[in-house]
Structure formats: C-alpha cells, structure tokens
Amino acid sequence: MEAAALSTSRPLPLLSTAPASRLRLLPSRSVSGRRLRPSPRPRGFVCARDGRGEMHFARKNGFSIARSSSASIEPATKEVGAEDSGEWSGDLIRRRFLDFYAARGHKILPSSSLVPDDPTVFLTIAGMLQFKPIFLGKEPRRVPCATTSQKCIRTNDIENVGRTARHQTFFEMLGNFSFGDYFKKEAAAWAWELATKEYGLPAERLWISVFEDDDEAFSIWHNEERIKRMGADDNFWTSGPTGPCGPCSEMYYDFYPERGSSDADLGDDSRFIEFYNLVFMQYNRKDDGSLEPLKQKNIDTGMGLERMARILQKVPNNYETDLIFPIIEKAASMAMVSYTKADEATKTSLKVLVYQRSGIKRMGADDNFWTSGPTGPCGPCSEMYYDFYPERGSSDADLGDSRFIEFYNLVFMQYNKKDDGSLEPLKQKNIDTGMGLERMARILQKIIGDHMRAVVYLISDGVVPSNIGRGYVVRRLIRRVVRTGRLIGIRGDGHGNSEGAFLPSLAEVVINLSTEIDPDVKSRQKTILGELQREELRFVQTLERGEKLLDELLDEALLNAAFPIREDVFLLYDTYGFPKEITAEIASERGVTVDMKGFDTEMENQRKQSQAAHNVNELVKSIPDTEFLGYDSLSATAVVKGLLVNGNPVNDVSEGSEVEILLDRTPFYAESGGQIGDNGFLYVNGGEDGQRKAVIEINDVQKSMGNIFVHKGTIKLGSIEVGKEIDASVDAKLRQGAKAHHTATHLLQSALKSVVGSETSQAGSLVAFDRLRFDFNFHRPLSEGELIKIESLVNQWIGTATQLETKVMALQDAKNAGAIAMFGEKYGEEVRVVEVPGISMELCGGTHVGNTAEIRGFKIISEQGIASGVRRIEAVAGDAFVEYVCARDNYMRRLCSSLKVKAEDVNGRVETVLEELRATRNEVSSLRSKIAVLKAASLASNATTVEPHNVRIVVENMGDVDADALKSAAEYLVDTLKDPAAVILGSSPGDGKVSLVAAFTPGVVKMGVQAGKFVGSIAKLCGGGGGGKPNFAQAGGRKPENLPDALEKARADIVAAVSSDSS
C-alpha cells in the first residue's frame, strides 16, 4: 500500500478510505516558513517532505517512506500485551472480562437501559447505577457478586468530544461488583491478574493510585513501586453529602515509561490513561460528616472498554479502535469529495446557524501576517476555523479558544520587506495555502464516530428526538453529526439518492457492531433507521421553524408594544437551544429590547427546582421503600417518615403551607407508567370530641429513588409532624376515572394494531382522571375511516363486559405468553401483567377497572402528529365520556335553535353563514381602505412644502382607522405627492393600541432620512417600537394618549431633517 501524499499544487481527496490512512495521517505542516498551530501527531506514523516540497506520511511499520529531509520522525507506539493487537477485538476484550469474573463466582448480568429506573438520574452514567438500590440498602441482593458490560451516556462530556483522545458521550463500562461478598484484597488481586495475565499488559507500564489515608490498600499494592497516594478529589467516592462512601484505587497505563518515575503526574493525559477504577465502599457518612464502618462492605469497579481497546489495539485514541472506527470508515467512504468541494462544504458548515451574523475577525500581525525573515517576501494571511459550538454565539468569540480549530491557512504573498522595514508590492503576487487533513479528519473521528453510537443506543432504548429532556440530548447529537457530515462533504444516502439522509447508512454500521453488547438493537433496526432519517431530513425545517418563531415573537412584541420580552427568550433558549445573546442581537436589530435580568430570574428558578429535587434525593436515602396498598384499598393508616417544604427537610409543618410528605405505606398511586398520581386527603385524628387535628389535601403523588412515594399537598387545618400516625384517603371518584382511562388505553393500543397494523407501537401515554393521551409510532395521519373503526372496536370490547385478569409472573414467562412491554421501559425480574382476555395483555403497574363495562364508553377527541413519525390520540372514557357526549349534545341543540335548522342540516347552514361573513368582512375592509384613501386625498392638497429642497410633507392623525387602512392611505399619499415627499400617519384603532406608518420617496431617502429609524423613534413616545425599510416602515404603541404629541414631534423632526442645507 502506498503512503498518502499532500500537495498544494493539485486537488486531493479530503478523506482517504484506505485503511492505512485511518483519517489521521497528516501532522502539522509548514506553510512557507510559518507553522499552523500544532496538533499532536498520532504515534506510530512518520512524515517527511520530498525534494518537490510534497509531504508524505505512513505507518512506520509495513509501508514505504518517502525520501526524507529534515522533518522529524516520531517513533511508533511500543508493543503492549501478550497478543498481537489485531487479535484484541473489542468483543474479545469484553468477553474476556466477563468470563474472567464469571470463573470467579460472578453472575453475568445484562446491561440495563440508558433510561434509568431512578427518576433522579437523567441517563445511565455508570455500571453501578442498576445496583444503586442494593448499595443504598433499599433492596436485598439477589446474587453475592456480579459482572456486567454497561452502556453509558455522559452528557457533560459532549464538549470534551473533539478535544481529547479519550472523552466520549457513549461508552461501555465493564464492571465487577461485590455485595458484601469479597473486598479489597480480592478486588485488587483480580484486577492485577486481569490486566497483566489475561490482557498481557507489561507490569512496568502500570501505575496504581490509592486514597492518601487508605493504608490498607497501599499495603495490598506495596510490592509495586509505581504507586501514588492521592487526595479525596481523585480517590474517594461518595454517593452524596451523607450515605455510603469509600476510598478508590485506580489503575493507569503508561504510554511513555522511558520518561521515568520521578515527578510522574498521573493527570498527564498525554502520558497516562486511567483504565480501571476500584471503589471500596466501606463507610457510611453521617450528618455530622463523621464516617462509620458499613456492616456490609461492597465493591464497585469500572473499566472503560474503549480505553482498554485503545491500549491493546495500539492506536492513538479511542476513536480508532474497532469499536468506533468502522463508523468513521463508512462516513469517510461517503465523503469522497475533491479538495475544492471540501473547502466549499466547510464554508457552508461554518454558516449553518441561521442567526450567526458575523463569522470574520480582524487579527494582528502575530497571527495573520507571514514573513520569510527580517527582509524578503511577505504578506497577510487568512485562516479558516471550524466552530465546534456555534450555539455559544459570536459576541466575544476567541479564535484561540479550544472551541475553535484552525484547519486552513491562506498566505497572500504580495509584498517585499526592505531593509528599512518598509513594504513594496511584488511584481508577481503568489498564493500559498495549507490544510491539515488530520484536523478535518479529527472532526469526523471525534463527532460522527462517537455521536452515532450514542444516538443509536438511545433510540433503541426508547428515547426519541424532541425538544425536552432526554429527547433533546438525542436531537442535539443528531444535529451535530448532520452538521459535521455536511462539512466534510457527505451528500446523499450512500445508495444513489443525493437528496437522501446519510445517518441511516452510518447507523447500520453501529447496529452491526451492537450484537455483543445489546442484541435487542438489531431487532429495533427499522425503528432506529426510520427515526434517524426523519430527524435528519427535517433538520433544516426545524431551524426554519425556530427562525419563524423568533420572528413571530418579535412581530407580536412590536404590534402590542409588549417588551422587554423575557419568558419567550427563555423558551427559545431552554426548548429550542437559541443562545440568549443571539436572540438579544436580533431583537435589537428589530427595535425590541430583551429583559436579561428576567431571563436570569427564569434560569435561577430552574436551578432552584433542580436543587429541590436534589434535597428530596438526599432525604429519601434514609427512608425505606413505600408499601403500596392502592390495588386493594383506597384508605389506610400510615406513619409520616419525612417532610419537605420548598425542597428542604423539616420536622413539622403548619397550616397554610405547601408540603411534601413521605409515608411508610399508602393507598395513593404515585405517577408512573403514564398514569398521574392520586388526589385525596391525609388526616391526623385524636382531637377533642373526635375532631381532626390536621387535614392535608393531596393534589399529586410522585416517585423518588425508585419506589419512595412523595405526597404533595397543602395543610388545610392544623399541623403535621414527622413520626405522627395519619389516615390516608384517596378520592374514589377520581381514581375510578383514572382506572377507566388506563384500561381504555390498553384497548386503544389493541385496536390500533388491529386497524393500522401490528408494527405500530406505543411511544408514550398520559392517563388522567378526565382524559387519556396515547402516543404511537406511525408514519402518517390516520384517516377518518380508520379513526371510526378504532373507536367502534374499543366500544365493542367495552360492551362485552369482559372481566380483567391481573397476575404477577416472571418477566420471561410474561413475554413468552405474549404480553406487550412498553418500548424502552425497564422491568424487574418479576412483572405485573394486566390482561383483558382475548383482547389485550400488557406489562403494567397501573390501576384498572375490574370489568370492561365499567368504562361505559370511549370517544376519540383528536388525532395529530407531535414529532417526526410520532402520532397522538386524545380520548375520553368513563364519566368523562358521558359528560363529553352530553355537553356536545347540548351544544348541538343550541346551535340548531340559533340557526333554525335540524341537526343534519347544521353543516350546510354553517358553511353558508361563513361565506356570507367572509364576504362582509372583505367588503368592510375595502370600505375602510377607501375611506382612508379619500381622507388622504383631501390631505394631499394641504401638504406643507419645506425649503430649500421643496419637500412636500404630510403628518396627520387618522383617527380610529386600523393598521391596514393606515398603510393604504400612506401608500396613496406617497404615490400622489411628487418626489421629494414624506408622509407620517398615526391612528388609534382601539384596545389601547397605536398604529404608525412612515413613507418616504427616494429623494427624501437620499437626504439621509430613513423611514425605519424615523418611525421607531416616534413610536417610543407612544410606548412602543418598530422599524422597516428606508422608504416604508410601520410601528405600534400602547399609549394612544401620547399620539398627538408624538405626531407633533414627528412633524418637527422631519421638517428639521429635510430643511438642512446639507440634506
């Protein structure tokens, strides 16, 4: 295989697909004596410039090297491991780890979902998360020790992707766990054996860190000379301010042992990589900060699979391992573009954000002026930078920041510097440019390779792209991949369709690599590919919708003079991802101010909500799971185990306060599975004459830390204390409404599958007391006929009066029996199965009717799309169904009475009335415009002429005419009056509004007077603002009482502007 070459004299493919190149071959290159900012050269590659000045590069072993000059040659990575790197596949590394610990008594357990069962955790971030309830003493251990390969997502690492060789958003964590079985000695011994014997890592390349006060761990490792004591920030794990905690030991691999051990810094990423972390969970931290030994000591470890693969496969970063690199290769093969096209694609990608107004910086000679020496040829430079985070806005952007990477340098050699330092133009001007291919490939490696794995596994676990929560993480990652793919020149789907989406082709590679970690991904391929295709193709449309939303907000603010704006800015930032600085900049251009202090207030409110959730998390760690009694009873006696006010734990709460109450047992259902929490009351009895001492109205119940119920409500009477006994009573009528709607939801899903096909699946639901909402995956709207069939089928099943059956069984047995599982939901080893025999069987923990007849009736209210490939049905059942039908019948009776027609004739009569109304409105609008124009005609003859340029001016209050009529009048006047002329009109159309319009002829505009700026300044006097073009502009206000004074000022200002001799 030949070495690749870079030459600025001819076009060159941007990305090679040859395996030897692996997309990272070109080191920092010299551009006629001036160097681009360097980036680390991958180990194991050499480069040199030949006699023609062309640069050649290749792997040191196995490939020919071009004639070398003075270019430095970097040695290849030294051999590691007992086996050849080609034999150490990622799958083999994973399998060896699991088999190693299985042979030592560990149970191999599957990876849990990326969507954790713990509601206090956003995404699964570590292998220990599925065992957290066991470590916290919330659940008993099922096995003494276990081993897993856990898929993980860490969103805080998104910004590190593209900067380091090891950070990723998606990664696999190999782990071994002991639940009171073995401890430090065994854990350390096995970790060392695994690393040195199983994986064959040379002992002289391994370093160990221990917590500075952990003498026990130090004594275990003491035979190793490469051991470091480190502080709590690095080597002490805690679950929070209180609770289980303990010291850590970490294993590091040394890429450069020849540098010696003196003053070695394990935090030096260029030399060391941490690959195995052992947490010794041996203490409980009390409220006073003191540590007490745990009765059951635990082990929690984590080994980064990608990191170990990087070591064993001897590649310079995680992205070039066989776990990720096939994705990069596929992307490279889809980006076969010329050097010139790559340049254009880069430019396009740099401008992908609609609101990025400025993308150019002037810089000094140190950065942007090239010289060949004290004298001789020289000239200015232009450099192109890629912005990894354009959403941060353009204000105060520093091109020297790690946010940017310089990838293309253009030197304009146009001067000769003389001895006295002066510059004279060269007779022959030259161009010298340089692009670092490794830098462009880095974008591909760090973003596409990483993010594609993340989005595929997230979608597989049921997270679909959206603008909130986990869905926003998926959407953000997808958009970064699309933006980067376009940058490097990917066009089309790779199957001949130039307008198609390319993400599905990349996802197929990820899915093919998924078999060993998550076999279910393959079975969900159709859903994953469809979701990615729809999201990519609608990406540009989404940007356009964001731009349209901002325009609408600004138009509304101008029309109603409703500014400064605040909540809307926060909505754009929090939901649509628009940086507040960009929103403020665009608003300023339109004459609208932004309340940045108000924005900060909204951000602080969000922070407080997050802090309150954290406080709840801390409190529930010391409280056992809540016993749920609500399947069999709507009332019970319980004990208060904890109280919170504004997210803070308290011992007692008085009348009038909002409170969150934790009980040991409860009949209240806590929101889960789409069903909302129960409402009802808590009573403290024992008052005089049998009176109640306290009454607490409960309006919501939520789960925290898996299975602890948090009852939210208001103290209506008396006070409540921790430790007190209470009587809990659920609102029976509301519970019955929830039961009817929940069972109806199951029937609806069966009807959907029957009518439109079994491939449709649930994507979410809401079961409320008065309605249900069912989201499902489907590619088109349902027809009226399909909706009628679905509704009819559900009502038919309700009429059969079928008795429901509920049972608890093993998960696999339930699946074998045909029970439907919610896509992306996590289930335990035992599950609750709700069956409507012969109709529906689902895994469900919600409350249901005993017999379908209790539902009474079912009516679909609406069907609509809510996201790409996701539809939503809203419906009512039970008492809500009866109320809905009765209300609609009452409306129809009234309508028939008003229109004096029978029910079957209402549609025709309404269409006739609407047509008559439209005609009348058009006639009224036309008459108003004609009246305004007639009034304007009389004003034209009274226009004032201003010297010395004979400018004809009309400034007038038009009374109560609306904005459209005012515009027509201004257009008539400016067309009637001879150039130069200026027309400023105002009106008060009612509802406390002011309308203003300014129309200037070309002659006035040439005098330097612009309608947009002029009318905006006048509108401020009326409590508003506005703008427009230099020759025509409109504005609004909310102080009609100020209109006369505003028009007088307008008259004075326009006269002064056009009467100046300099005009």
* Total of DSSP H or I helical runs spanning 4+ residues: 27
- The helicity comes to 25-40%
What is the CATH C-level name of the largest domain?
A: Alpha Beta
- Radius of gyration over alpha carbons? 36 Å
**Largest sheet, described in full?**
9 strands, mixed
- Multimerization status: single chain
Q: Mean of the pLDDT scores?
A: 79
Number of strands: 42
The rough form would be described as globular
What's the CATH architecture name of the largest domain? 2-Layer Sandwich
Query: What amount of the residues lies in strands?
Result: 25-35%
The rounded distance between the terminal residues' Cα atoms is: 74 Å
Low-confidence stretches: 1-85, 337-359
Explain what you see.
It is built from 27 helices and 42 strands. The protein has 1063 residues and is an alpha+beta fold. It has 5 domains: 90-322, Bira Bifunctional Protein, Domain 2 (BirA Bifunctional Protein, domain 2, 2-Layer Sandwich), CATH 3.30.930.10; 444-610, no CATH class; 627-730, Elongation Factor Tu (Ef-tu), domain 3, CATH 2.40.30.130; 735-890, Threonyl-tRNA Synthetase, Chain A, domain 2; 919-1059, Diaminopimelate Epimerase, Chain A, domain 1 (Roll). The termini are far apart. Mean pLDDT is 79; it is low at 1-85 and 337-359. Its main location: mitochondrion.
